[in-house]
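seq/struct pair 1
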Amino acid sequence: MRLMIVDDSNMIRTRISRVVQSGGIKGIVLAGLAKNGREALRLARATRPEVVTMDLTMPEMDGIECITELLKIDPKLNILVVSALSDKSTAIQALKLGARGFVAKPFTDEELQMALLDVFEAR
């Protein structure tokens, strides 16, 4: 299972990759890290991830636009929104567009693992 992490915060990208690689979830390979939606689209075309963690508020291309474009590339892509609770209405919009789950920042390692497992099982 290939995972791409999309977040403008280096700290969050590092944290998610650490949680994933610490062995909490078996069978995940990190396909790549992107700091905005444009980078995510380039990376997705090159690496074909099956699961994506997606921030909503990013420069250049936000998460909503990126989700729309990613699902054009791969309609079966599983997207987990990882964003601040202040983005609640935007998160609902993301879910309506096709995201499969939501984790609010700040999150615990366990919350992230559970949400990722839910998204993986949806495949």
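seq/struct pair 2
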Amino acid sequence: MDKPVLKVLSGGRPERMPIWIMRQAGRYLPEYRATRAKAGSFLDLCFTPELAVEVTLQPIRRFGFDASILFSDILVVPHALGQKVWFVEGEGPRLEPLESLNGIASAIDLERLAPVFETLRTLRRELPAQTTLLGFCGAPWTVAGYMAIGRGGAAHDGLRTLGYARPDFVDALLDRLVQSSIDYLCAQLDAGAEAVQVFESFAGSIPPGQFERWSLGPLTRIMSGVRARRPGARIILFARGAGANHIRIASETGCDAVGLDWHVDPMWAAAHVQPLKPTQGNLDPLALVAGGQALEKGADAVLEKLGSGPHIFNLGHGVTPETPIAHMERLIEIVRSHRIG
């Protein structure tokens, strides 16, 4: 059976546009909240295969998305490098700030991530035949900010300062994360992932003169490193805030598809990105929260502008906890009713 998401990633055109949603397993679902309550900590949820499988499958059972993305977190990589990681309820992740590479291992310990691979193997058996199983990791710049500063968000300003003040340290940390990401993604593919997505969540924090050094170069090395070991790997690259650099991402990294955040004009992407690579995205998550005309017009704009080329429908960032389930159901109706060309 042809899987619509994999067909797009191969440059093909399925009969209808496939859809999956970033953070589709999350707090907007009551069944997720119930399972999360059983788990204890967030990392316990990620590292308990029975529970991680359950929350990954919940949105597939409810909505029938065309792809199911592994329930985990980008910070399992620093965890597997030996850095202390924990989550503060209502605030997010925390790490012990890294001052030198002496604070982490020289290579990722894949044994510490064995529960993740068990989750993938189980999901591959239990997912519907037409559903693509996605793995993922964070991009080096995005993960490095958490590791060096101890948290994300505005803390990436601190990583940028470090990049100027201690460029050798930041370059070495990015190099360590490039190799760790290659090892981790290859292990996910071996465990059953059919494609993977790399999240460069803080591409927008990088000044133009440093984009190649801090983001584009490391991402390109990940793509080539994974392909050298797993030639058939399919890789989506989502670089939030990359702006016009989406063109370079499409043309230079070797990715199979370019994820577009909600800042990107679909008409611009159709003209400048989609001729180079398939695209994914990019409805504003808050239009989904609002529903009504905002949802209808926003979804129609994505379908109209990007629907004539190879495209996977998604949001321009993750679904938010306050999203009404009825709005998600309506979005799926809109996308499912759209017929390609």
